[in-house]
Structure prediction request, 174 residues.
Amino acid sequence: REARVLRLRLVARRAVKALGGDERDILAAYTGGANAGLGALGAPPFEYLMLRHKAGLLRTDFAQQLGKVSYHVPCHLRVQNLGLKTRDTLKLVPGTEVEAIERCSGHNGTYGVKREYRDTSMKIGKPVFNKVAAATPDYYASDCPMAGHQIESGVEGAKPPTHPLKLLRMAYGI
Prediction:
């Protein structure tokens, strides 16, 4: 695991070094803003929203029902053992049924897009693809965008995934 982290850091450093000065400045501004925003929350987005709900500070005057949502719980969230905060937040929306799918989508970073591993990654994700297809949800979502697109590629005729934050925005009517 440590070797993979070090390799990733090396690749990232090389990629940043290859950027032009203006591109590096844009990247620095973006990451600085994103990190400041996440730091200000004090918790990952859905954990933060559930903390606000527990304190009675989350608005629940939703404008739109979401219907049936198949929600893929990313492997990294299961390992972090924070609970299913995204599922719990979406379940606050009246007229919304959320089915949590706690299995690996088979993507695993770059594994699912490397030619030599693609078939294996699709076999790993098959149980998730089957659950989504059988559920015929109005939306399917994952906190991991890569997993969402892996599911899209494994479900015949699937529309693109909808990120959980976008679902919440839709529920609020914004």
About this structure: The first strand starts at residue 67 and ends at 72. The radius of gyration is 18 Å.
